[in-house]
Design brief:
Order of helices and strands: EEHHHHHHHHH
CATH superfamily of the largest domain: Ncd80 complex, Nuf2 subunit
Strand order of the largest sheet: 1-2
Structural class: mainly alpha
Shape: rod-shaped
Radius of gyration: 70 Å
CATH architecture of the largest domain: Orthogonal Bundle
Number of strands: 2
Largest sheet: 2 strands, antiparallel
Number of domains: 2
Distance between the termini: 108 Å
Length: 463
């Protein structure tokens, strides 16, 4: 629609009074053609001979400016027809009145306040051009304001959509913030528990390390003692074997008394028992040493296990530290998301304020529209009163015209009678004139004869 409404200057407002140019007939036709309202120059030059065409032009203008078609205006208000005694008599007057009201409202909005019913029934060439110029100017004014309104409405819709999108993003970020907060609190509690377990395991590992160091030192001592005892036991076994071999060799060489041999054997037996006792003690000591070595080996295996467990704990601690770093990163991201959420909330507040300003502008435009509508309704009420007065005056004029017509008829009849009487009198006068003319001619003839000779004797007819 904006492509065809690029004509006419903007209305000039000065001290609350709007003015508009009166366009020439050719320009009016061009503008109406742009509005897709065809008409002819004959209609503008002789509107009284093209009343129906003029009404059609006004109907198209009402449809363009107010969105009400002639068919809709031709539909009577059936709910109001019930209060009339003879509703069928108003089937034509109600649509005509509705059409006049719509055109009057349009003309009032176009700052033409003297529009009357006569402008539809007996249009005047000059007034018609002025009225069409006003409506064309109003169409341009309306189109400009509609463009501003549509732009503001579109901007408002975009802002509301942005506000809604930001609100949804804000809600999503708040949900993520709550989820991250809850997850962070849970992970913080788990991290504290893991750190406490790690500290306990570190203390246990430190104690095991100290026990391992002491056990290693003790194991080294015991190993050295066991090796010494093994060496001593081997030396004793060797000495015992050498002594037995020496005894057998000596027994083969020396012949002693039985008592001496018995004593030596008893001594050797005692020495052997002592050696056996010492060997058994050494063996027990060796067993204890082996047991201690086994315990040390078992302790070493436990230490290895503890070391592996310590490595696992250190690895788990590393994972927990990594998880803690992730938690801290999530906290930083959470803080950043909180900042973004705050920025989004600020943007949403700005957009809401902008939308509120747009709502205020729209409300201002609506108030202006209502004020103009109220002014138009007031003007319409005044026009209705004026229409009623004009209708009463028209009825009075019709009565006077009928009386004048009756009087004219009477005058015409009287004139006809007088004309007939005058014609009769004229004919009588003509007859009398002709008779007088004949008498005069006869008199002149007699007079001329008397002057020329003696008078003839009077005839019996002339006497």
């Amino acid at each position: 629609m904006s492509s065809r409404m690029s004509f006419a200057p903007e209305p000039v407002a000065a001290a609350g009074v709007y003015s508009f140019p009166t366009l020439k007939a050719k320009l009016i036709l061009e503008r109406l053609q742009q509005l897709q309202i065809p008409t002819s120059e004959e209609t503008l030059d002789n509107p009284q001979k093209n009343v129906q065409e003029v009404q059609n032009v006004f109907a198209k203008l009402v449809e363009f400016t107010m969105g009400v078609t002639r068919e809709e205006m031709n539909q009577p208000v059936f709910a109001g027809l019930n209060v009339l005694n003879y509703a069928q008599l108003h089937e034509d007057s109600v649509p005509e009145l509705a059409f006049f009201r719509a055109v009057s409202k349009m003309m009032t909005a176009s700052c033409v306040h003297d529009f009357s019913f006569n402008d539809l029934q007996t249009p005047n060439k000059t007034r018609l051009k002025r009225q069409l110029s006003a409506v064309i100017n109003f169409c341009m004014f309306r189109e400009g304001r509609m463009q501003v309104y549509n732009a503001l409405a579109t901007e408002k819709e975009n802002l509301l959509a942005n506000v809604q999108a930001l609100g949804e993003d804000n809600e999503r970020l708040e949900r993520e913030l709550a989820s991250l907060t809850e997850r962070t609190s849970q992970e913080a509690a788990e991290t504290e528990m893991v750190e406490a377990d790690c500290r306990a395991m570190e203390a246990q590992i430190s104690a095991l390390n100290r026990e391992q160091a002491a056990t290693r030192a003790q194991s080294g001592d015991l190993k050295r003692q066991a090796n010494g005892l093994k060496d001593r036991l081997a030396a004793l076994d060797l000495e015992t074997k050498e002594a037995i071999m020496e005894r057998e060799r000596l027994q083969a060489q020396i012949v002693s008394s039985p008592d001496r041999i018995r004593r030596e054997m008893a001594d050797q037996q005692a020495a052997l028992e002592q050696e056996r006792t010492e060997g058994m003690a050494a063996e027990k000591q060796a067993q204890r040493t082996e047991l201690t070595a086994a315990n040390v080996a078992r302790a070493e295996r436990e230490v290895v296990k503890a070391t592996r467990a310590l490595d696992d704990i250190e690895e788990e601690l590393g994972r927990q530290k990594e998880a803690l770093r992730e938690v801290r990163a999530a906290q930083r991201a959470l803080a950043e998301n909180g900042a973004k959420s705050a920025a989004a909330a600020a943007d949403a507040a700005v957009l809401r304020r902008h939308a509120a300003r747009l709502d205020e502008k729209l409300a201002h435009l609506r108030r202006q529209g209502r004020a103009r509508a109220e002014a138009a309704d007031a003007s319409l009420a005044a026009l209705r009163a004026e229409l009623a007065e004009e209708e009463a005056a028209r009825q009075a004029e019709l009565a006077e015209a009928e009386a004048a017509e009756a009087e004219v008829r009477q005058l015409e009849e009287l004139l006809a009678t007088e004309r007939a009487q005058a014609a009769a009198e004229a004919e009588d006068h003509v007859r009398k004139f002709k008779s007088l003319e004949g008498a005069v001619l006869q008199y002149h003839k007699l007079l001329r004869a008397a002057m020329q000779g003696p008078l003839p004797p009077p005839s019996s007819s002339s006497s």
